[in-house]
Design goal:
GO terms for molecular function: deoxyribonuclease IV (phage-T4-induced) activity; DNA binding; DNA-(apurinic or apyrimidinic site) endonuclease activity; phosphoric diester hydrolase activity; zinc ion binding. The chain is α/β, with parallel strands linked by helices. The protein contains 9 helices and 10 strands. The structure holds zinc ion (2 copies).
């Protein structure tokens, strides 16, 4: 079982490993730089080296680690300036991951801002194909969306079509977020519902393309398109469905990363413990 959480990027990079180990993680996700800014300081190579050494010395498999793109880039935007800036920032991020030995970079699919799904998908896939030319040992993971206004990729069929247009194929994979899938209309509340949803996922996107699973419960109801994560088992999805997903991921050796809230109800320590207990 490879399971962990999104780890805070505060402190030096090697402290990501400490924070992950402390929380009982055997997988984790990070932001390699501030997610709310266009600007990123150059990667400190000594710090990166210390991070890699600490990760190597830990029990965490490098292939169970990933980075998440910052929030500002929008790869589907119809606006040229923002589009170019987004591509540039993602290329930088791919290079950072490469230097850190992070094998996967998770990206959102962006907003077409009312220019239409077809336009959005065209922009998105040509941006991704441009980024994929970067010489780096990093696989880009497309994350399924919650189906908010002006988004694409919440429907598995459309998500699969987008994925199929990403070239070269060996540079791409997918990340499935349980909260996003659920609020996009894919029931995950019972064992039977999970089996049906995962079958549909396998037949469209393909389970073999799934490299990271985001395990989140949901504050929003089924089909609400509301992207609000909840603590494991305390949301609309619940223990039965999430437990079944954990089992399927373990069977297929797919690393699980939690992006659950940290509040008075629970922190990462407890959500990770809870998720492990569901297996
Ligand atoms: Zn996610
Ligand atoms: Zn989300």
């Amino acid at each position: 079982m490879q399971i962990g959480a999104h780890i805070s990027k505060s402190g030096t990079m090697d402290s990501w490993v400490d924070n992950a180990v402390e929380r009982g993680c055997s997988a984790f996700q990070v932001f390699t730089r501030s997610p709310r800014s266009w600007f990123a300081k150059d990667l400190d190579l000594d710090e990166a080296k210390a991070y890699k050494e600490k990760l190597d010395a830990s029990d965490i498999d490098r292939m169970a680690t990933c980075a998440h793109m910052p929030y500002l880039p929008n790869l589907s935007t119809p606006e040229d300036e923002g589009y170019e800036k987004s591509i540039k920032s993602m290329i930088e991020e791919v290079k950072r991951c490469d230097k850190l030995g992070i094998p996967y970079l998770v990206t959102h699919l962006g907003s077409h801002k009312g220019s239409g799904e077809e336009n959005g998908i065209k922009r998105l896939t040509s941006a991704l194909n441009e980024v994929a030319k970067t010489k780096a040992d990093v696989i880009i993971l497309l994350e399924n969306t919650a189906g908010q206004k002006n988004s694409v990729g919440s429907d598995f069929k459309q998500f699969a079509e987008i994925f199929a247009q990403c070239k070269p194929a060996k540079k791409f994979g997918v990340c499935l977020d349980t909260c996003h899938a659920f609020v996009a209309g894919y029931d995950l509340r019972t064992k039977a519902a999970v089996k049906k949803t995962m079958k549909e996922f396998d037949e469209t996107v393909g389970l073999k393309n799934l490299k990271i699973l985001h395990l989140n419960d949901s504050k929003g109801e089924l089909n609400s398109n509301l992207d609000r994560h909840n603590h494991i088992g305390l949301g609309e999805i619940g223990n039965e469905g999430l437990g079944e997903i954990v089992k399927i991921m373990n069977k297929n050796k797919i690393p699980i990363v939690l992006e659950t809230p940290i509040d008075d109800t629970r922190d990462d320590f407890e959500n990770i413990r809870k998720a492990k207990s569901l297996a």
